[in-house]
Amino acid sequence: MGVLLIPILFILLNNKDRGKLAADNVVFRDKLSDYGLFKGKIADLVPNDQGVSYELASALFTDYADKKRVIFLPKGKKIVASDDGLPDFPDGTIIAKSFFYPKKDTVQASTFVLLETRLLINKGGQWNAATYQWNSTQDEAFLLADSAVVPVSFLDNKGVKRQTNYIIPSRTDCIACHRQGDRMLPIGPKVKNLNRVVLRDRDTIQQLAYLKDKGIIDIPLLRQLTSLPSYDDLSQSTEHRARAYLEVNCAHCHNPKGTAYMTMLDLRFESPINETGIWLKQAKIIGRMSVLGEMHMPQKGTTILHEEGVVLIKDYLKSLK
To answer: What is the spatial distance between Cα 194 and Cα 57, in angstroms, rounded to a whole number?
Structure first.
């Protein structure tokens, strides 16, 4: 009986601090253009003067879609960071992430087809989420009340032609991943995931140093910060690549405050291996990653197996002692 009661007690103790998530405290506009986030032709995704593009060391896999990420800060405000976790964003911050597939034809060397733009808006310390679907003429994106399905055909990173019914998430889907306890929080732009080299003004520079020089972020000495590896970087160890992959694709739910806390898996990069539950549940981890449908993990945002990711996690699990 004691063994049976342990998981129940664990869930009850962790659930006592998981209050009801607050409703949106912003009214989302009907059209993406209503925000004035991008200048010129909106589909070119050129940020306005308050926006700054950023890149992640390891990014969430979403059916091989490419992404454009931009943070828009209120004039005169900065992001404040004290460690390698999620920094503090000023009130009024908007984070926009646009999803697209490259499209090649004989008329134009390289173009892309936009599918969706997701917005996170910080108001009064509360984050709000919404998704906007791009129209067929690629001159506007409209607010979605529910999820949407878009048939797409594209070439993956190996040049293989693929087809799928791409799913644009609803607000409920967004909450499922972004919820931490009784709050919604951004997932990707943690300091350790921003701590990478990028190309800016035809030169390579450490991204955090670039953002600091531009007055975007207030951050301590860069040498004291850790960096999340890129799971595509073959020069990194299999362990570090796999843990980075689990961090960005799974840990937003599988952590003590995430929506999948009851699984007793803690897949955060910084968690010691003996506290993650990976060894005990390795068969379930790879099993859920290797199937499609209702049992697939991650549950949201994918309709295609990430073959390279599955191989990476399999290799990592085989290496565990």
So the answer is: 6
